[in-house]
Amino acid sequence: MIELTGSLLSIELAKKIVYENERIDVPDQIWAKVEKSRGAVENIVSQKKVVYGITTGFGKFSDHLIEADDVEELQLNLIRSHACGVGEPFPEKVSRAMLLLRLNALLKGFSGIRKEVLELFINLLNHQIHPVVPQQGSLGASGDLAPLSHMALVLIGEGEVFFKAKRMDTGEAFQLTGLSPVTLKAKEGLALINGTQTMTAMGLVNYIEAEAIAIQADYIASMTLEGLRGIIDAFDEDIHVARGYREQIQVAERVRSILKGSFLVTHQGELRVQDAYSLRCIPQVHGASWQVLDYVKDKLEIEMNAATDNPLIFDEGRKVLSGGNFHGQPIAFAMDFLKVGVAELANISERRIERLVNPQLNDLPAFLSPMPGLQSGAMIMQYCAASLVSENKTLAHPASVDSIPSSANQEDHVSMGTIASRHAYAIIQNCRRVLAIELICAMEAATFRGTEKMAVTTRTLHALGRKIVPAITKDRVFSKDIEALTAWLLNTDLEQVLINRQDTKGEIVK
After folding, report:
1. Coil, strand or helix: which one is 372?
2. Strands, sheet with 160-163, edge to edge from the N-terminal-most edge strand
3. Weakly modelled stretches of the chain, pLDDT under 50
4. How far apart are CA 440 and CA 367, in angstroms?
5. So what's the pLDDT on residue 61?
6. Using CA atoms, how far apart are residues 228 and 357, in angstroms rounded to an integer?
7. Is 425 part of the annotated catalytic residue set?
8. Is there a cis peptide before residue 370, judged by omega within 30 degrees of 0?
9. What's the confidence (pLDDT) of residue 71?
10. What is the pLDDT of residue 509?
11. 510 exposed, middle or buried (CB, 10 Å; 0-12, 13-18, 19+)?
12. Catalytic-role residue among 52, 207, 219, 425
């Protein structure tokens, strides 16, 4: 059981809730803050004060006063009218993360929402009922209005959900679990949708997957070094300490550890004086991508614990302020940065693939073919990798530099952060496939060199990979191999698996 407080949610805790379905609870002192904030809203309504989003319309309609008898209809109209998302739904893990992050923000006690509504959030998470949320339609300022409205539809018993691997009407899922929808009161509709939780939820999933890819890239690149008889001296600690980047030093250290005991790596001057940059500069390039990940993690963990709706209620209602915390620019920048960092992992991986298959760049069989000429071997795998990295280059164009005015120019600058987060997700999927192709080629090269000469860690990885993709003894439909290995990388904590597969003497456990 994980307690939510609105302030202490980390990526590691969120991962347990989103990926491992850990149940959640809320401490009594947090509920007290929520109830005080709600009392402030009810006082505003009863005293007929003019406060944006509570007794007025929204956006350009902020000058339209709403009668007390109409506030419930106002909230209902808001959710229905703003549910304008289109396209394919977000992955279910993203909509689960949306529920979690919006709940965490509302628990801060600045939003004026009732405990009853937040308890339904908790029940949805604990029952694993996840809104169907279309991916397209958010500008990323005034919050993720369209996607969060689709999330909010579920709270009022409308829209669709994923439940027990099925897509169904919300009402059906509620009947199966005994849950009941809520009727939204003053400000509650606005509190539900005025935030950045869609782009941040997508960003959370992106970070978790990108971090795994970055680790996998170090391991797969290490096997490539063996397949190409790379020069280990380039990873000497003194080189990397001399520059001073912590992440670069860590990548070099990881590669040295992975390749400890290898008889396939060489020293400078033994076969050649220097390797190409795609081998020699692995710590510098991969390390820079780790720097991006560190930046993204910092921004995500701030946003995951942020109050991002409008207006915000302070001092038990004595101060109600309209601001712009819903603007997604910090996450938009972080997602655009993440796109570049992950795209570069794919770029340098593709160059290593080229060195593995190009007979002009190595002493391996041409294109790793069992019968060069008659059989093409890995030739078109490199084409596929090249296509994926080229696609990444278009996806990596920053979304955050674009803006388009909305709501009759009241909302005249927006972040496009949700587009940035969606494109980052696409780049991550492409990068994983490129790494899968590199691993296939690296395994072939290592087999040619002699797996008995490999380091224990890379030999373990080779053995695991061979269970998914057998050796290339003749041409076959390699698409199946790429997708199978990609799925394995997605669902495998590679570092932990490799540690667990070695005994205390460093030998492979069969």
Report:
1. strand
2. 130-131, 160-163, 166-169
3. 504-505, 510
4. 12
5. 66
6. 10
7. no
8. no
9. 79
10. 53
11. exposed
12. 52
Look at residue 173 and give its three-state secondary structure: helix
Type of residue at 252: A
- As a whole number of angstroms, the distance between CA 347 and CA 25 comes to 43
Closest CA to 502 of 472, 473, 446, 464: 464
356-412 tens-digit pLDDT: 999 999 999 999 999 999 989 899 999 999 999 999 999 999 999 988 888 777 777
Q: Measured between alpha carbons, how far is 292 from 328 in angstroms, rounded to an integer?
A: 18
Write the single-letter amino acid at 83: A
Q: Which CATH class is domain 2-195?
A: mainly alpha
Is the distance from CB of 468 to CB of 488 less than 8 angstroms? yes
Number of other CB atoms surrounding residue 269 within 10 Å:
10
| Cβ–Cβ < 8 Å for 157, 171 | yes
Choices 2.60.120.200, 2.160.10.10, 1.20.200.10, 1.10.10.60: CATH for 204-309+320-500:
1.20.200.10
Report the C-alpha gap between 377 and 409 in whole angstroms: 57
Half-sphere exposure of 316 (CA within 13 A, CB side): 2
What distance, in Å, lies between the first and last C-alpha atoms of the chain? Answer: 36
pLDDT computed for residue 413 by the predictor = 84
Query: 404: left (phi > 0), else alpha (psi -120 to 50), else beta?
Result: beta
Identity at 367, one-letter amino acid code: F
Question: Domain-by-domain residue ranges, the chain?
Answer: 2-195, 204-309+320-500
Residue 214 half-sphere exposure toward CB, CA atoms < 13 A:
27
Q: What is d(CA 119, CA 127) in angstroms, rounded to the nearest whole number?
A: 12
- Residue pair 142/199 in contact by the 8 Å Cβ criterion: no
For the record, the structure tokens of 258 come out as 């992975």
8 A C-beta contact, residue 432 and residue 347: no
- Cβ atoms of 264 and 454 within 8 Å: the answer is yes
**CB atoms closer than 10 angstroms to residue 46:** 10
SS3 track for 81-118 = HHCCCEEEECCHHHHHHHHHHHHHHHCCCCCCCCHHHH
What DSSP designation does 169 have?
E
DSSP tag of 56: B
SS (H, E, C) 436-455: HHHHHHHHHHHHHHCHHHCC
Q: Is the pTM of this model over 0.70?
A: yes
What is the tens place of the pLDDT at every residue in 293-350? Answer: 999 999 999 999 999 988 898 988 889 888 898 999 999 999 999 999 999 999 999 9
Q: Considering Cα of 316, then 318, then 322, then 325, what sign does the dihedral take?
A: negative
pLDDT of residue 507: 59
Q: Which two tokens stand for residue 224?
A: 């490539």
